[in-house]
C-alpha cells in the first residue's frame, strides 16, 4: 500500500499540492481527475521522486520513500508512463520495453517472462517490437510507454493522462489492455490521471479529484468539473 500523508509542494513559489492525503491500495484502479494544471502530473512525479522538496510523507508499505532516490524507485516495483512518453529514439520498441527491467538487475529469463506477459496484455505492441522508438505515432508511443510501465511495475503502475490525444480506436484498445492488466494481475495498484473522468468508463474502483491543489473523493466531485 502506498500512503500520502499531508503532502504539499510548490512550483516557482505557487502551491500545487496542498496537504494531500490518501491511500492507494493493492488491487485498486484509482482515477485521479482534475483540470489541466491541477497538479496531477506533479503528484505522480512526486511519487516517483522526480519532484523534490515537498512537505509531508510518501510511504510504501510503511517505508518512507524520502530515503529512496528517484533512480531506485523502479526497483520497488513502481512503473511510470509519463504524459510525454519519453521513449529512447535510438532503441527499438522491444529494447525500450526491456531497458528498465535490465537496469534494475532482473535476469534475462525474468525479463523474457515479463515481456511475454506484457505482450499478452497489450497485444498491439507485438507488430511494433522491431520499430525504432522514434518511428512511433503519438498514440503508438502511448501504448509503448504503457507497456514499459507494465514491464517494471510489479506493485504499482502510474499512467499520466494516457487517453489524451488518442484516436477512438486506440483509446478502446488501451481500455481493453487496462482490463486485461487488472484481470491478469489483480494484486496490482493502477493509478490513472485524467482531465475527463468519462473517458475512463467503469475502469476505476475509486475516484480522487484534484482541485486547487486539494484532494477530494468520489465521482460526484469529478462530475462537478465538467
What is the structure about, briefly put?
With 226 residues, the chain is α/β, with parallel strands linked by helices. The chain has one domain (26-38, 70-223): P-loop containing nucleotide triphosphate hydrolases (Rossmann fold). The protein has 6 helices and 10 strands.
Structure notes:
This protein has 226 residues and is of the alpha/beta class. The chain has a single domain, classed as 3-Layer(aba) Sandwich (Rossmann fold). It is 31% helix and 26% strand. The strands form two sheets. Strands 6-7-8-3-9-10 form a six-stranded mixed sheet, sandwiched between helices. Strands 2-1-4-5 form a four-stranded antiparallel sheet, with helices on one face. Helix 3 crosses helix 4. It is globular, with a radius of gyration of 17 Å.
Question: What is the element layout, followed by pairings?
Answer:
Elements: E1 2-11, E2 14-24, E3 29-33, H1 40-47, E4 55-60, E5 63-64, E6 78-81, H2 93-103, H3 108-121, H4 138-152, E7 156-160, H5 168-184, E8 189-194, E9 206-211, E10 214-217, H6 219-223
Parallel strand pairs: 3-8, 3-9, 6-7, 7-8
Antiparallel strand pairs: 1-2, 1-4, 4-5, 9-10
State the oligomer.
Answer: single chain
Span between termini = 31 Å
Number of helices: 6
Overall 3D shape:
globular
Q: Approximately how much beta-strand content do the residues carry? A: 25-35%
What is the residue-averaged pLDDT? Answer: 92
Widest β-sheet, arrangement of strands: 6-7-8-3-9-10
Order of helices and strands: EEEHEEEHHHEHEEEH
The CATH class designation is Alpha Beta
Outline the low-pLDDT stretches.
none
How much helicity do the residues have?
25-40%
Could you please say which CATH topology applies here?
Rossmann fold
The radius of gyration computed from the alpha-carbon positions, rounded to a whole number of angstroms, is: 17 Å
User: Which homologous superfamily in CATH is the superfamily?
Assistant: P-loop containing nucleotide triphosphate hydrolases
CATH architecture: 3-Layer(aba) Sandwich
Largest sheet: 6 strands, mixed
Structural class: alpha/beta
Amino acid at each position: 500500500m502506498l500512503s500520502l500523508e499531508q503532502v504539499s509542494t510548490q512550483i516557482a513559489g505557487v502551491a500545487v499540492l496542498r496537504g494531500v492525503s490518501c491511500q492507494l491500495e493493492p488491487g485498486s484502479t484509482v482515477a485521479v481527475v482534475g483540470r489541466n494544471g491541477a497538479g496531477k502530473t506533479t503528484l505522480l512525479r512526486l511519487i516517483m521522486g522526480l519532484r523534490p522538496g515537498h512537505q509531508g510523507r510518501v510511504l510504501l508499505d510503511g517505508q518512507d520513500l524520502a530515503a529512496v532516490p528517484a533512480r531506485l524507485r523502479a526497483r520497488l516495483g513502481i512503473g511510470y508512463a509519463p504524459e510525454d512518453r519519453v521513449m529512447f529514439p535510438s532503441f527499438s520498441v522491444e529494447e525500450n520495453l526491456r531497458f528498465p527491467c535490465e537496469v534494475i538487475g532482473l535476469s534475462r529469463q525474468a525479463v523474457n517472462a515479463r515481456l511475454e506477459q506484457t505482450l499478452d496484455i497489450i497485444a498491439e505492441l507485438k507488430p511494433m517490437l522491431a520499430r525504432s522508438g522514434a518511428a512511433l505515432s503519438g498514440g503508438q508511443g502511448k501504448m509503448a510507454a504503457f507497456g514499459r510501465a507494465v514491464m517494471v511495475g510489479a506493485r504499482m503502475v502510474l499512467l499520466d493522462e494516457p487517453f489524451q490525444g488518442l484516436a477512438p480506436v486506440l483509446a478502446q484498445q488501451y481500455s481493453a489492455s487496462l482490463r486485461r492488466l487488472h484481470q491478469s494481475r489483480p494484486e496490482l495498484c493502477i493509478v490513472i490521471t485524467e482531465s475527463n473522468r468519462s473517458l475512463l468508463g467503469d475502469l476505476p474502483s475509486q475516484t480522487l479529484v484534484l482541485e486547487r491543489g486539494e484532494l477530494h473523493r468520489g465521482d460526484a466531485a469529478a462530475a462537478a468539473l465538467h
